[in-house]
Amino acid sequence: MWWYQHIIIVIVLLITITIVENVELNYLNNVNTLYFNENSQFKIIQFTDLHYGEGESTDWGPEQDINSTRVMNTILDFESPVDLIVFTGDLVTGNNVVSNATKYWQEAVQVAIDRSIPWIVAFGNHDDLSSGTGGSRDDLMAFDQSLGSLSQFGPLSIPGVSNYYINLQNSMHEMIGRLWVFDSGDGSCPPGNDGRFTGSKYQCNTYITNEQIQWYLNESDPTLFAMAFFHIPLQEYMDLWNYQTCFGYNNDSVACQPVNEGLYNAFEKVGDVKVVTVGHNHGNDYIGSIPGHNITMCYGRHSGYGGYGTWERGARVFQLQANPFTNDITYETWIRYETGQLQFQQPIHYPNQTNPQTQCTV
Questions:
Q1: Domain span at residue 25?
Q2: How far is 222 from 202, CA to CA, in rounded Å?
Q3: pLDDT value at 95 more than 70
Q4: CA atoms of 148 and 221, how far apart (whole Å)
Q5: What is the CATH number of the domain that holds 251?
Q6: 82-118 as b/e, with b when 16 or more CB fall inside 10 Å?
Q7: Domain match, 13 and 60 both
Q8: pLDDT tens-digit readout, 320-342
């Protein structure tokens, strides 16, 4: 009977390998592609920290959600046509939601649905904290996809859910760019929150891990222009404000990722990512780069009336321009406020070496 047992073991192993291969192939085949228009342009609107669903049993809670929708519609009216909306986290304040979180999720992305604008999502640390139904990261990603989003489940082999990329092609359908999305974690660790990993590293992290970085290194293409979107800023944002001349506001200090496993260095090693943009700190919208490093770091602009802070709401806009002869991509970026005001040149900030921030705030 020993040979019979060996045959059974071999069959089980083959089935297991086939399933794993199919999962990976399915993931790789689901990479979405968007296209530059006939003028070789591609416009991205970054909305961040909307925080729908706060105070759902109060008068002020639904009112601030209405205001958040108004902000997004106003900005989209001024910036039309728009090729992609990127929501960089905290679409909902899940820890305040006791009913179905998907209701508020749909309210947050409805502006994209109504206008038939493609959208993608990078999860924030508040999105999946709902005590109600449908509130896990997996639930919200599946629901987002069901609404028509281009967001994708990331590989099962790395922490987080919103780890994926979108390819950009020119009007001749040639690959010229890529938009990376990373899951920077939630920090909450509710039971079964992720459904993929056990242990605090994977459910409680609020940083981008080495496993995610290795995935990026394996999938990246140094010949492409790339941007990276996620929620919680890198520690290099703190260094940028402390020691470099940059532009914009830091009204909130930098609540950066508490562990730095080297994503910025990986971007620099590959050379594809030219822009990194985040959310999380509602009072920050500054932009700049470290001399000698070809990576621009920027914040979006707090878009929602949910969450803390009374700073004027808005969004960051990116206008990409492809050279039709060389396929090289350049870009401009600006802030569009809820009033419709456009700000190209943000206030200058000089190095803060006399009182530098030395640790990530919480």
A1: 1-30
A2: 29
A3: yes
A4: 27
A5: 3.60.21.10
A6: bbbbbbbbbbbbbbbbebbbbebbbbbbebbeebebb
A7: no
A8: 999 999 999 999 999 999 999 99
